[in-house]
Amino acid sequence: MSEESKSQRTCTELSIEEKECLQPLQVDSNNEGVSMKMSKEGSDELNQKKVTVVKDLQLLRERFIKADADHVVQNLMSCSKTLEDLEKQESKFLHTCNAKRYKLQDEIIELEGRLTEDHDCSSLLDSLDHLISESQEELNSVKKELASRLRETLALKRLLDDVPTQTELIQYERRFSELYINIQDKLRQTRRYYATYNAHLEIKDLMLKETSLLKSISSQFQDAITSPTSQMKLIDSMEGILKGILQKLDKVDLSREAEQQACNALKEKYSAATSEQRRCYTLLKAFQDRS
């Protein structure tokens, strides 16, 4: 609200002026005139601000009929409280300025007495030099504190600059998602290559076994058919080979069935995800049409 912001600015300015009035002043006749002038200007400015707040209260009273009652009452209460605070700060400011003025007048009288009584000027100059050196040291300390505060501010600004913004975070997220997709594609491709290699390697082993078996049968067939005992051994060996082939075939069938079940499960998940995507799309379209 404009009235509250004015009141807050007024309070801030008053506090600044009070701080300025409370700073140490050098003992000099010209400084006494400057202090009295600052006190007068501060008092005039406070009176002017007080008149401004009273005018604002009058405007609020005029707007009371046209505006909302609760809102205007709150503004009036806030302005009344601000006016009371201003009056308290004005009295405190005037008291402080008067005390400062009386102190400076006493110091001026004391200095004039020293000058009229022909005291040693060296002691006066020493006191003035001491005051100047103290003021210079205070100024240097304030400058050092200001420099340290500026360094801290710059460090904080650098830290804030290092923090990524919302746009940069969105870009990072997009790049990470793209990188994740590429990695998944490479992983699937690598798995497919390994599966193909293993399948070809297994086919190669089976073909080598089949070739060695055929060579063995071809080399021993003529000797095996010459006697009934050799024939029975050949038949037994062929039956053992057939059993091994059947066991291998059973294992292949089991692995094929497991892969088929996994494929069916993936198809079911894909169909469920597709239906969920359609439902979400329908809800989104309905929400957009409603809005």
Automatic annotation (TrEMBL):
Coiled-coil region: 125-152
Signal sequence range: none
Organism of this sequence: Momordica charantia
Sequence ranges assigned to domain CCDC93 coiled-coil in this UniProt record: 15-289
Pfam families: CCDC93_CC
Domain of life: Eukaryota
Official protein name in the record: Coiled-coil domain-containing protein 93 isoform X2
InterPro entries according to UniProt: CCDC93, CCDC93_CC
UniProt keywords, alphabetically: Coiled coil
An annotated GO BP: Golgi to plasma membrane transport
